[in-house]
Amino acid sequence: MTAGASDHLPDYDRSNRSGRPQPVGFPYSSDTWKEIAHLLLNLPMALFGFVFTVVVLLLGCGLSVTVIGLPLLAAGLLAARRFGTVERARARNLLGVYVDEPSSAAAGRRPGGFLARLWAGLKDPVGWRTALYAFIRLPWGVLTFAVTLTGLFVLWPVLPFLARAMANADRAMVRGLLCPSDELERRIAELESDRGVVVDTAAADLRRIERDLHDGAQARLVALAMGLGMAKEKLTGDFKDPVAAAAMVDEAHGEVKLALQELRDLARGIHPAVLTDRGLDAALSSIASRCTAPVRVTVDLTARPAEAIEGIAYFTVSELLQNVSKHSGARSVSVDVWRSEERLLIQVRDDGRGGARLDGGTGMAGLADRLGAVDGLFLLDSPAGGPTTVTAELPWRDRVRE
Q: With CB atoms counted within 10 Å of each terminal CB, which end of the chain scores lower, N or C?
C-alpha cells in the first residue's frame, strides 16, 4: 500500500455514541493511529491500576479489623474514582467514547458525622466498579500491548483491523464499567440541587408569612387593643363619655373584621380550606373569580392526587392567574387540568399581550424551579402579541386514605 492511500480513507465517526462496533476501514486514518496509541498505553495504565487496587484496596480489606483499615479502604475507593476520571478522558480523546461523568462522591449524601461519611464512602458503587475495571485490565493490557507492538513491526497490513477490534472491546469496557450506574445515579447531583431550591423556597415562604402577620393582622390587633383601652377609659374614667366610647368600639369592630379577613387571606395563602374540603375544581374556580379577566376552568380528574401535588398545582395556577391580572391585559383565560397516565397536567392560556419570559421578573423562573424540585416540568410559550400558554406537568401520586 502506498503512503498516499490513507489520504482517501474515512476517519472514525466521533458522533457515533450508540455503543455499536465501528466498521473496519483501510489503513491508516488518524483515528487508527489514536486507537494504536490507546492500545499501547493500556499496559502502563493497567499496571498502575492493578497495583493500586491490590495494594490499597486489599490492604484496606485486610486491615478492616483495625482502626485504619476501613478509612483506608474508603480513601482507596475515592482514589479509584479519580482513576476512572482519567480513563474516561483517555477513552474520550483517543477512542471517541463519550461517557457521562458520575456525580461526585458527596452528591446526595446526607449530613452526618465521621461514621456516616465513612459508610457512604464504603458503599460507593462508582468506586467499586472502577476498582473492578482496574483489576481486570492487567491481562487485557498485556495482550493489547503485545499484539499492537508486534503488529507495528510484523503484522503491518492487518494491524488496523486488529486495532479496531481491540479498541471496540475497550469501548465496551469503558461504557460498561465507567459510566454512571443507572438513571438514579445520574440524577443524584440534580436532586441535590433541587433540594436546595426546596429549602430556599420554604424559607422564603416563612419570611413572607412572618411579614404578612407583622405588617397586617398583628398591626391591626395592636391598634384594636389600643382602641378598646381608650374606650374603656371613656366608660370607667372620671370623665365618662359613652358616645365617644361607642364610636371607639364601633371602630374597633371594623378593625376586627379587617384583621379576620387578613387572617383568612393568609390562611388561604398557606393552604386554602376549599382545596382540602372540595378539591382542585372548586379551589381553582374560587381563585379564578378573583382574576381581572373571565376565566374558564376545566378539571377532568376521576380521583384526587396526593395533598402535596394538589397543593403545588393550586398555587401554580394561582400565581399564573395573578400574573395574568398584573401583566397580560388579557380579555379571556382558560385553565385546564387533567391526568395523563402517571402525570398531572395543567395548562393556562390567555389572549393577552404575550412576551412573558422566564427571566422577566414575573415569578415564572420561581415556578419553574419549584416544579423542577418535585420532578415536574414547566413550559412557557409567549410570543410578542400573544397568546401566552403555560403548560405545567407534575408527577401523579395517589392520595393517601386516612
A: C
